[in-house]
Structures are given as C-alpha cells and as structure tokens.
Amino acid sequence: MFIKIYPENPNQREMDRVVGILREGGLAIYPTDTVYALGCDAMNVRAVEKICLLKGIDTRRSNLSIICYDLSNISEYAKVSNAVFRLMRKNLPGPFTFILPTGRELPRIYKNKKEVGIRVPDNNIVRQLVSLLGNPVMTTSIHDDDEVVEYTTDPELIYEKYQDRVDVVIDGGYGSVYPSTVVDCTTDDFEIIRQGKGELII
Q1: Is the pLDDT of residue 149 over 80?
Q2: pLDDT at residue 140 above 60?
Q3: What's the CA gap between 97 and 184, in Å, rounded?
Q4: Residue 7 maps to a domain
Q5: Which member of 25, 56, 170, 202 lies 3.0 to 4.6 Å from 30 by CB, making a disulfide possible if both were Cys?
Q6: How far, CA to CA in Å, does 125 sit from each of 15, 121, 197?
Q7: Residue 45, domain CATH
Q8: Which of the residue ranges 39-48, 86-95, 148-157, 165-174 would you say has the lowest mean pLDDT?
Q9: Full domain range(s) for residue 136
Q10: Would you say residue 189 lies in a domain?
C-alpha cells in the first residue's frame, strides 16, 4: 500500500489506516526529520522480529530505537536521569537519537543490549502515528551506505523497492540523506557517537 500524507495537515482517515496496519503487526515506511525509516508497533515483539530479520539486525549487538510522541512518558521505556532529561528537553523534537538504559515497560527483545535509542523526530506524520497508536514505534533507517541516494529519499522509489516486504509506504515528501545525531546518555557524561543532522545544545 502506498499512501500520500501531507506533514502540515495529515489526513485523519489515511492516518487511521496506517495505525490499523501497525496495530495488526504490520510494517510501515514513513518520513522522519532525517531519513525515511522502517518501523512497527514497538510493543509487538513479532513485528520487531520481522524488522530485525529484514534489516539483518542482531539484537545482541545492536541497539534498537523507538519513536515517542514526546518526553511525557519516556521513563516507562528508558531510565532517564535529571541531567539527561534536561538535555533531551532542549533538543527534542529534533534529529537526535539518545541512547539510554532500557526501562521496565519494554519487551525483552530490547533488553539484550540493555540500551535503547529514543527518538522524538520533528515530523508531524510519525509523531501523530505514535499518538494515535498509543505505543512507541520501533524504528530503523532504510538508508544503506552503498545505495543510490534516490532509493532512500524518493518515496515512489522506496515503494518500488520495498512494496513486497512491508505493508505500507507513506509518501510524506522527499526525505533527507542525513541521519540523526546519536548521543550516548547511558551516563551523565554525554558523548556524541555519530554526528548527523542535529547540532546538540548542551
């Protein structure tokens, strides 16, 4: 399924269709404030496993990331010190992934590495999806370093490539080629482990 949704004014009926797919364990590709990403209901372990298989992610070696609507209930999914919370509040919504110790509510698959990436993108489509779903969305970039750029930025070409592997691709306009800035916040000695689109405000 290929759905056009405008970031400035997402169509409720189309958004409900995507949320229905996510609730049933489906996989979606959607825009963020960085690159296009592949995701599912973060609490649906079978759907998370499907994405890991599709992307070749080993959960014992790689952190999984989730998209939250905002920071209001983030302590359910990650352990957040006061210093880290202040840092996130200054920089989110925005093009960052904050690596934190996993919280109590996440399924076991996130706890293999005992860390989780937290995203609150500055993108209305995916944040509204999270809000309507009522759960975070597990997320991973579709960008691969060896790929032709257009295949990760042009929604129609993304659909052409992934239509047999996912349930829905959202066309929310052209995507960026720059990934998020990744910040290790597992301690209060914050460390940028990948400089991406976001310039961190300390």
Answers
A1: no
A2: yes
A3: 9
A4: yes
A5: 170
A6: 8, 10, 19
A7: 3.90.870.10
A8: 148-157
A9: 2-194
A10: yes
At position 25, the amino acid (one-letter code) is G
The reply to whether 65 falls in a domain is: yes
pTM beyond 0.85: the answer is: yes
Q: How many whole angstroms separate alpha carbon 136 and alpha carbon 106?
A: 10
How far apart CA 65 and CA 72 sit, in angstroms, is 17
DSSP state of 102: B
Cβ atoms of 173 and 4 within 8 Å: the answer is no
pLDDT at 147 over 60: no
* Greater model confidence, 153 or 167: 167
pLDDT at 104: 87
Structure tokens at 13: 């009926």
How far is it, in rounded angstroms, from Cα 61 to Cα 63?
7
- Distance set, CA 167 to CA 17, 29, 67, 100, 148 (Å): 11, 8, 19, 30, 23
202 domain-assigned: no
Distance of CA 144 to the CA centre of its chain: 16
- Whole-number pLDDT of residue 186: 94
Instruction: Give one word for 56, left, alpha or beta, with left for phi > 0 and alpha for psi -120 to 50.
Output: left
Please give the mean pLDDT across all residues of the chain: 93
Q: Amino acid identity of 44?
A: N
